[in-house]
Design a protein that fits this description.
Helices cover about 25% and strands about 25% of the residues. It folds into 2 domains: about 200 residues, Aminopeptidase; about 180 residues, 3-Layer(aba) Sandwich (Aminopeptidase). The protein is of the alpha+beta class.
Amino acid sequence: MVDSNKSSGPPEETPSHNPNGNVPSESDLALDEITEKVQESLGLEKRHKFWESQPVGQFKDLGDTSLPEDPIEAPTPLSEVKQEPYNLPTMYEWITCDIDSDEMCTKVYNLLANNYVEDDENMFRFNYSKEFLRWALRPPGYFKSWHIGVRVKSSKKLVAFITGVPARIRVRDEIVTMAEVNFLCVHKKLRSKRLAPVMIKEVTRRVHLENIWQAAYTAGIIIPTPITSCQYWHRSLNPKKLIEVGFSRLGPRMTMSRTIKLYKLPESTVTPGFRKMGLHDVPAVTHILRNYLSRFVVAPDFSEHDVEHWLLPTEGVIDSYVAESSKTHEITDFCSFYTLPSSILGNKNHSTLKAAYSYYNVCTKTPLLQLMNDALIVAKQKEFDVFNALDVMNNDTFLKELKFGPGDGSLHYYLYNYRIRHTLKPSELGLVLL
């Protein structure tokens, strides 16, 4: 994601709290909310000067049906793309971060682990593992030059980071090669140096040098202009620990033992033929996933190579399961979740919150509710503390039923240099960015 946080605060541990959360499910309500927030932020001191100078959807154009849904600016001839990096303050220099190098990967890991996304109460901070970073940053066709660091010239200390990876994203009927921009992180002591806009411009320049002119990214804040606003929902797997560390609260009239009983899951999965995905499943998973993603307005255009990279299980990074028919040996259903722990700040008894994040899930025979309950069961067996899911795709059909609670924060999705006239409902989005 680019800047700010994904989920700003814990859900309550009671099922009786506000079921609607912060994000209206209807696009016109979401549009009203965005418009209201825009009006609040349009005081001169709060103008989004940087973003208003960029080829992104502008707040003033929301809902203007006369505007085409396509790139906002035409590509520039490659010879006219700036060849030299943007200027940094004199004590800093650009570096390309070789994520294959253990030494560099450790530096990137340490920067993110100490300075990346925290919740609003500064109780939790994302702790992406080195294995996760290598998975996230090396998809098919990736460019090393898009893994960008800023370091202090004298000490060689890494103090800022931003990345892009290439992806094919379908917007309605158009398949567009884009950069997925992520991991924008500036050391806490340098937040006043205005490094972030320069870093965004630099990653944009390097993307343009590869003749790619669009990008997708997310943020926990509203900038011009979200294509949709989603909400995180949280399902307790280890409610006692979640309450002890302040991620959740004990609901009114609830005891700890009643809460543990409320969230108890079966010992074993119930879907026939439910098993871990293997390499031989890639073609079948690609087929059902592509069919499923075709239903959404914005979604990735996955090849078999993409599915192999993003969805084949990797210990401690990505878990994927299929349901295979005992009669036909056909793969009928698929579910996946990735591992993103958070450091627990300032707690004597616990240092890490182990969180699973719902990724891509497809049902053709098994009810989605049953498939996702099985996903919760295997996540619990793997000792995850919480299972998180956005209300994208068809996720809203199982969230309340499976005892997920809405989080306090929103995640806003953005496209760079591509206009969508109307704000989408979360259920119209088929894209999960890490």
